[in-house]
Amino acid sequence: MIGKGSDELSARAVFHAEVTRQRELSGWTLAELSDRTRYDASYLQRLEKGDRLGSVDAAGALDRVYGTGDLLKDLWRLAKREVQANRYQGFLDLEAEAGSIQQFSVSVVPGLLQTPGYAETQLRTDRPATEELLAEQLSLRLSRQERLTGPRPLDYRVLLDESVIRRPTLDPDIWTEQLEHLIDAAARPNISLHVVPFRVGLHNLLGGSLTLLWLPSGRTMAYVESSFSGQLVEEAEEVGQLRLSYDRLRDLALPPGESLNVLRTALEEHTSCLPPDRTSAVPSGVSPRTAMQTGVTA
C-alpha cells in the first residue's frame, strides 16, 4: 500500500514502492541484489527508501534481474517527469514571492519580458499536444509579468546574451514588437537591462540560463535551466558560486544606457529590412508599433 490516501500518491512513490516489492517477491537480500545488478547495496537501499530516484540504467538493471520487462524503467521515466514538473512549479512559487530577481538568458528573451506573440512562437516550438494546453501555458507565462508592473513592482536585473537580440522570429512583425517591448522595459525604473556582447567571449554561464531569487526571509535561491530541464539550487555554497559567476558576467556586460542603444540599433536595422509599405509612412525615429498606436504618419 502506498501512502495513506490517494492525495499522497505520486509516480515517484509508486516507483520506490515497486522497487521494494520486487525485491521482497524475489526473497533476495540487498547484498544478493547488489551481486546480480552490480550496483552498491547502499545505493539500492536508497532507491527503496525513496531517498534518491537513481538513474534509468539502474531501473533497467532491476528490470532485467526481476524479469519485469520495462516496468521499472517506465515508472522511473514517469517519476522523473514528475520531479522536473515539481521543480518548475517550485521555481514559479519562489518567483512570485521574491522581492528581487537577477537573471541571465543565453538564447531567448526571458519569460518576464516576452510579448504575447514571441511567447506563443516559443511555446509552439515544443509542439504542445493541444491548442487548449498552449493557451494555458501562454496565459501562465504572461500572468507572471504582472510582477514587473504591479503596485509593488519587482526589482529586476537581466543580462541578455547578444545572441538573444540577434535571433529574430520568422514573423518580422512579432520581432519588431518584441524589440520595442525590450526597449520599453529597459526604460522602467525597476528594471536594469544589460546586453552581454559577443566580444566578452567564453564564460561559465554559457551552458544555460540562470535566475537568482532574493526572498523576504533573507535567503537567496537559484534556478538553473537548459532547453529540457531545470533545477532549483538551495545549497548556500552552490548559490554563492552562481552569484559570483553572475556578478563577474555583469561586470563584463554593457551598462544599461549602452545596452539600450544596442536594442535601438537592432530595431532600426530590423525595420530597415521590412517591405516599404510597412515603414514608408512612419517618420524617422518612430517605430511601426508606436505609429499604429498613436496614429502618427508622415
Automatic annotation (TrEMBL):
Chain spans, region Disordered: 274-298
HTH cro/C1-type domain span: 19-72
InterPro entries assigned: Cro/C1-type_HTH, DUF5753, Lambda_DNA-bd_dom_sf
A Pfam family it matches: HTH_31
SUPFAM superfamilies, A to Z: lambda repressor-like DNA-binding domains
Domain of life: Bacteria
Listed name of the protein: Helix-turn-helix transcriptional regulator
Species per Swiss-Prot/TrEMBL record: Actinacidiphila acididurans
